[in-house]
Amino acid sequence: MAELSSRPKYRRAMNLIGLLAGFGLGQGSLFAVQTWLLATGEIAYMGRFAIINTMILLAYQAIDLGGLVILARHVATEDHAGRDIPTLFWSFSAVRIIIALALTMMGLIWLAVNPTSFDSNYTAMAIPGLILLALSPGGILDGHNMSGWTGATWALPFVASAIALPLGLEMSSRGAGMLLGGALSLGAILAVAVQYGLLRRQGLTVPYRRPKAVVMREGGHEALLYLVGWLPGQLFFRGQVGIAAALLGPNAAALFIYAKQIIMIATRFLVFARRVEYPDLVKQLAERQHLLRKVISIQKISLSMGVLGMVSFAIFGLLMNLAFPLKMHGAGIVIATFSPIILTTSVYATFMQACYAVNRTHTSAWASIVVNVIGLGLLFALVPFIGMTGLALAEGICHTVGIILLIFALRRA
């Protein structure tokens, strides 16, 4: 495969711009529409969409099986290891397709049992996008320092959802679910198509190779370890949504999701900064010396941005509450409450990525399980007594415990 650039700093800057632009266009457009729904009193409709959307997006992200990290790492080191990347990609994709088909069967069974509900129709119409995402070459692009383009393509499902969301207001539950699920699916299909177009344009096509059972097993094992580390945090967020809805009510759950989307603006910026640096991080940590010092040095910009993001969004939330105390239903206070999570997430994710870079996926997986089990217990203990603040406090404690465990693991690497 071709070398793409002799100007790594320029490439990293362009990748960061692409990731930020894709996030701003995608998440920004959907956030703008949800803000309009909140301001016009459609909080129940917004909440119904937001809850199922977060669940389906979990499946969309999970079906990648960590390809953005695993495939990127193999591509970034292929010159040294001599790996056959096309065989790896198609074997890895075969595993993803098997899982996608299993999820498809579950979605269709749900539709058959409950054919008129918003949620089941949304899920059924989102299935085609899920299947196509199993063939996403995003990890190949990332490994060749084209993460900006990968991130930009991910704007498409969100833009499609943002366009469709106001149109579902006057529809039946079934019709609105079909419309919004179909829009998400269409955006995902377009995203994968554009990714393949980018590969072809750069001369980085991955010619079809028959999947090999041994590579599928190896890739599946690596993906399982990645998911064990990644999935608990995602399930923790969905657990927060479920507990907020059950204990505080659906409107509180909608406010929580809305506030977390704003907080995720900051955390996504930091994810993009780390993602751009990931191929270089893998190479820098190849020599297992002074790991903690190297990690902090390479990621110092994203760590500093975490501090800035925490302060900025706390001020933003308080100002929002002062300006719109009634119209925004207290969303500003919720945003300010969750602003420290920007910093704790930044530090925790930095050391988590370092474990991936040195192929200590199993370590990060066990750490993630431990901290999120603790977090779920804290949610049940805190939310009934201190409400929304309990959601934020439990998450912050989770991250702190995780940071300590990962630092200890890296010291022993």
Defining key terms:
2 domains; Poly_Biosynth_Transport; single chain; Polysaccharide biosynthesis protein C-terminal domain-containing protein; cell membrane; 18 helices; membrane; transmembrane; 0% strand
Task: Report on this structure.
The chain is an all-alpha fold and 413 residues long. It folds into 2 domains: 1-211, no CATH class; 225-413, no CATH class. The protein has helices at 8-39, 43-62, 67-76, 78-81, 85-113, 118-133, 138-143, 147-153, 155-164, 173-201, 213-248, 250-284, 291-298, 300-323, 331-338, 340-357, 361-386, 388-411. Helix 2 runs antiparallel to helix 11 (213-248), helix 11 (213-248) packs antiparallel against helix 12 (250-284) and helix 12 (250-284) packs antiparallel against helix 14 (300-323).
Residues in β-strands, percent: under 5%
State the total count of DSSP E strands: 0
Terminal-residue CA separation: 31 Å
- Largest sheet features: none
- Rounded mean pLDDT is 85
Percent in helix: over 70%
Number of domains: 2
SSE class: mainly alpha
N-to-C series of helices and strands: HHHHHHHHHHHHHHHHHH
GO cellular component, one term: plasma membrane
Protein name: Polysaccharide biosynthesis protein C-terminal domain-containing protein
InterPro entries: Poly_Biosynth_Transport (IPR050833)
Transmembrane segments: 56-76, 88-110, 148-169, 175-199, 243-259, 301-324, 330-351, 363-386, 392-410
